[in-house]
Structures are given as structure tokens and as C-alpha cells.
Amino acid sequence: MGELRTRKRGKNWEWSFEGAKINGKRNPISKGGYRTKADAVAAGTQAKAEYDNAGRIFFPSEISISDYMDYWYENHVKKHLAYNTQTDYEAKIRIHIKPAFGKYKLSSLEPDIIQKWVDDMKMHGYAKSMVQNTLKCLSGAMEYAIRPCKYIKTNPCEGVRIPKMAQPEHQKAHMEYICVWEDYKKIIERFGQGSSFYLPIVTGYHLGTRIGETYGFDLLSDIDFDKHTLTVNHQLQKENKKWYYRPPKYESYRTIEMDPLYEKILKDEILQRKKNMMRYGNYFLKTYLMPDQSIVQVPADVQIAGKEIMPLSTRENGELLTPESFKYCARVIHNELGIPYFHSHSLRHTHGTILAENGASPKTVMERLGHKNSRTTFERYIFNTKKMKDDAVSIFTEAIEQSAYR
């Protein structure tokens, strides 16, 4: 490639260099409008380095971890990962990864340095989940540096171990809380039919859906009453103060069979929603899904170019309710009903556990909850309840008794 040249054109300066020939013809590359020669040289040097590096603005052997994390975030995280993961990783990179490793070269990062960092996070009192997820973020960036980038040959996070970390009892109790029938009954009595929280509660309990999936159901297109099924096509997700329909977590699109009780609850809700539309008339808020998958609400007498949907949860006047709305419901359950460990995800835990307690196959539970594998299902969502322990004893007792009489 040709050398960088500068020249003055009128009152301003221009840089130029010769690019690779195209169809055998010269390919001059230039840009002008710089106030001084120094400005033109600086801009031209950067442009030529980027051109010589096939559009890349750095040399892999020289890039810092700080700059590489920015590159990974822009080119992979923002393009391929969910919005919530983007915001989570941005914070972890800014608060934990850059301060620890940012000044070093990407090529110099070794497992022992990362292990010391992980151990130090434990000493500073971070929760095990925080340590695991921060290491996962760093490891994901390193994997991208191997494939497809080929900046490094091995992942320095491999072999790094999370130290044993005692989990506070209240955290363990909160994470493993199962909404037993007595608690569920109290919750439904407090937030019964007619409450804007009734349908999200019974949906989580009867279907085991994630909270974003629950609020993301469209009662007009996601339900098939003939087949008694409901399809998970999206989740409701907030991005920059606006709500969107996004693919479900892990793109776990799935069709779930509905039990008769839940199906009746849905039919009653749809009927009541239609009555509310008539009662409020033009003051009823209709909901539309726009081409960019954003959710927009307008009065019934306003026409807009979008697909009309019927969100699973709204107020009487059609006003959209969201996963953020559910936080009020959880506070009431904690403080008024005296169930401190309840959280929206516990309905999902409960659904999976009820299935497992009553003999559903691991594959059935996995597919219903939308997990990638059964290991996730049993490690995270199905707990070893007293019923399971008692059943294990009964199964073993029955087995040896049968053997004794053979």
C-alpha cells in the first residue's frame, strides 16, 4: 500500500494514500477539511492503520483488555445477547473486570491472575452468584477472542475455580422457597379474580413460565382453546424506558398444555376484558405491537399502524401492566401476608417441583419450563422436598419387600 501523504487545499489540509487496486484500477483514498497539517496527519495515520488492518482499529497482539472488552461488548454482546444481559455485563465490565485487568494486554492474561481475582472477590464479601456471573462474563469474552477472532489460543478462565462460599441462610431460604398450598391459597384470597395480579399469579403457578414470559402472552394469538395449549412466543422486556416483545430467554419457544382450571380462568378473563372494552368505550386503552416489536397503547378511537394484541395483564381500562408492576404484589405478600421469601420466580420453582414430586419425567419438566437441559432443571428449579424424601423411602421399602417375597 502507498505511504500516507498530506497536502494543503485552499485553507484546509487533506490526507491520502493508495489503496489496493480494484479491477486493476487505482484506488486512491483521501479525506480533507482539516484545520492544520498535524490534524490531517493524525487522522490519516489512524485511517491508514484501520485500512491496513481490514477495518480493525487495533493490532490484536497489542490490544489492552480494557479496549478488547469494549470491542467484545460492541460486536457481540450488543448484537447477540438479550438487553438485560447487556446491561448486566456492562456493569460487570465497568465495575469489576476493567479495574482488575484493563491495563494489561489481552495476550498476557493468565489463569493464576484470574484465580487470585476470584479469590479476592470472595474475601471482599461478594455473593457466590456475583462471582460466578462475573467470571462467566470474562470467560465469554475470552472465548470470543479464541473463536472467531483468533486473538488468543486458549481461554485463561479455564480451570479457574470458584472457592467454597457459605451461603447466608436467608438467601438460601429465599432461593429455595416453594409456594406451598397454604401460602398459595392465602395469596389467591388476597389477589383474587378481579385483581390485576390474579392472572400473572395463576399463570406462573399453572404453567411455570418466567415472569417476562407471563406478562408477554398475547391472549389474541398465543392461545389455542381447541388444542388446549398456550405458546410461549416472546417475553415482555424493558429497554430504555420502553417495553418490547423479545424472544424468550435462551430462545425457549415452546407450546404448553393447559390444565382445565387454568383454561377456564383464561376464558373468563377474555370475556371480562371484552366487557371492559364496551364499558370504557373510547377511553379504553388498546395495545399494539409495532414493527420494531415495541408496545404502544392508544385510546380505542385512535387508529395506528400496528398489530393489535391483548396483553395478559392490564388494568380495567386496558392500561398495560408489566413485570415491574408485580413488585407491588410481592411487597404485599411479604409484609401483609407474612410470606417473606415469596418472589415471582418461586411460582416457577413451585410448578416444576409439583411436577417432579408427582412423577413427571425430567424431559417433560425440562421442556415445559423451557430449559436447555435437564441438569439445569434439577439443579436450579426442583428441590429435594420432604415429599420427595418420603417417596424415596416408600419406593425403597416397597422394592425390598417385593424382593423378599420372590
Briefly say what this structure is.
This protein is an alpha+beta fold and 406 residues long.
Description:
This is Site-specific integrase. Belongs to the 'phage' integrase family. This protein is of the alpha+beta class and 406 residues long. The protein has three domains: 5-52, no CATH class; 65-166, Tyrosine recombinase, N-terminal domain (DNA polymerase, domain 1, Orthogonal Bundle); 175-345, Intergrase catalytic core (hpI Integrase, Chain A, Orthogonal Bundle), CATH 1.10.443.10. The chain is built from 15 helices and eleven strands. The chain has helices at residues 37-52, 65-80, 83-101, 111-123, 128-146, 169-175, 181-190, 198-207, 211-215, 260-280, 326-335, 344-357, 362-369, 374-381, 386-404, and strands spanning 5-9, 12-22, 25-34, 223-224, 229-232, 235-239, 242-246, 254-257, 285-289, 295-299, 307-309. A three-stranded antiparallel sheet has the order 1-2-3, covered by helices on one side.
